[in-house]
Amino acid sequence: MQTSYKINIETPCKKINWNEMSAIEKGKSCSLCNRDVFDFLNWPDEAIIHFLNKSDGPTCGRLSREQINRIISIQDKSKINNRYKIVASIFLFLSSANLHASENPAVLTEYNRDYQSIHSFPKVIKNKITNDSTQRMISGLLMEKDSKQPIKNVSIEIKGTPAKTQTDSLCYFELFLSENYSKNEIVLLVLDDYGFEGPTESTVYKNQLPMTDLFIEKPGFLIGEIMYSKQKKWWQFWKKRLN
Predict the structure, then answer these.
(1) Any residues with CB less than 8 A from the CB of 21 and at least 6 apart, and which?
(2) Between 3.40.50.150, 1.10.260.40, 3.40.50.1100, 2.60.40.1120, what CATH number should domain 122-219 receive?
(3) What's the pLDDT tens digit per position in 174-214?
(4) Which of 1, 42, 47, 210 could bond 137 through an S-S bridge, CB–CB 3.0 to 4.6 Å?
């Protein structure tokens, strides 16, 4: 038998930045509320639910957009509690290792170099700059700031103009500045239909056009007290009606 859960952070914390908190083995320590904030970004669903079920009080954590507001089905087996404990311990260790790696500039530089070599920009676009429209082109990649993972199907627009597009399945986007755009400064706006820290802006200038290798990084997580609930099964709704 399976039990379904749903987790969320109803009131994300806006008072402190993740990078400003002190690192601990399990994530970060919040100086404002004197709580540990567990980094659940790389945890599997089973380990998160098991951790929350075993917690004595409120649990603060960091979750990605993909981890919240969805149904999580967990197999009900009392004998696998020890396995969940082992899984949770492993991911605590891995999260700590990832945290130290993300704070190491040398590691980040090597990772970014590898990422760029794998996800190189289409050379065919660079070689086709032959007309006025391509001379006004702005294109690049949208990634999550911390994980460096691609962000697909997110709206990006040139602020103050009708120009708008979406990132594709490879996180690539392409925009064209209108001919009558008079300002030198061009602000690209990643809309807040993604992420939890509002719109993200990136500025380029007309004398930089055409630009075909722009990287935009977007925060893709939220921090706060985790709320979770056990979802009712279909027969429980019918039982309530019959009563």
Answers:
(1) 28, 29, 30, 31, 37
(2) 2.60.40.1120
(3) 999 999 999 999 999 987 554 445 568 899 999 999 999 99
(4) 210
Determine the 3-state secondary structure of 76 from DSSP.
coil
Place of tokens 């659940």: 40
CA Rg value for the chain:
22
Measuring CA to CA, which residue among 223, 234, 243 is closest to residue 30? Answer: 223
Alpha-carbon distance values, 128 to 131, 134, 135 (Å)? 8, 8, 10
- The total number of residues shown for the chain amounts to 243
One-letter amino acid of 86: I
Condensed to tens digits (0 to 9), the pLDDT of residues 108-163 reads: 444 344 444 444 444 434 444 445 688 999 999 998 876 677 888 889 999 999 99
Mean pLDDT estimate for the chain: 76
Whether 186 and 178 have beta carbons less than 8 Å apart is answered as no
Q: How far apart are CA 124 and CA 98, in angstroms?
A: 36
Any idea where the domains of the chain sit in the sequence? 2-107+222-242, 122-219
- Its pTM stands at 0.51
Position 84, amino acid: Y
Query: What would the mean pLDDT of 25-35 be, rounded to a whole number?
Result: 89
Question: How many helices and strands in the chain, by DSSP H and E?
Answer: 6, 15
The CA-CA-CA angle for residues 216, 189, 116, to 5°, reads 15
Q: What tokens were used for 138? A: 């702005």
Query: Alpha-carbon distance 7 to 225, whole Å?
Result: 10
